[in-house]
Amino acid sequence: MFSRLLTVSALFALLAGTALQQAPAPVASQPILEFARVTAATPLPNGLELRDGTLLLRITALRNDVIRIRGSRTGVLPEDASWAVLPQARQASVAVTQQSDARTAAFKTSALRVALTVPPAC
Questions:
Q1: 47 near 67, Cβ under 8 Å?
Q2: When comparing pLDDT for 40 and 121, which is higher?
Q3: Where are the extended beta strands (E) located within the chain?
Q4: 110: burial class by Cβ within 10 Å (0-12, 13-18, 19+)?
């Protein structure tokens, strides 16, 4: 049940930011970046933040059943703006229970659990 909720919520969160944006002009494709290791894992009152050098991934709970995933290649998140999502929804948050350990960065709300396997340090 939690997996299905997380999958649906994560998909919605990823798509919501791009739903009404105009398609950008074609550009040379950028390589997909992935965490080779986690240099910092920071618990937040409403989620967690992971870093690998300048790569940044922030996952926050907007409601008990909705998460938001934001990322950056530069270590700084872009402006928090959207034409598709009202400011009240973007700025909402709920407190989470941290469940991280040495191998997993995780938190839970009353409706879902977010867990990411942390690659071992090289």
A1: yes
A2: 40
A3: 40-44, 47-52, 55-63, 66-72, 97-98, 104-108, 113-117
A4: exposed
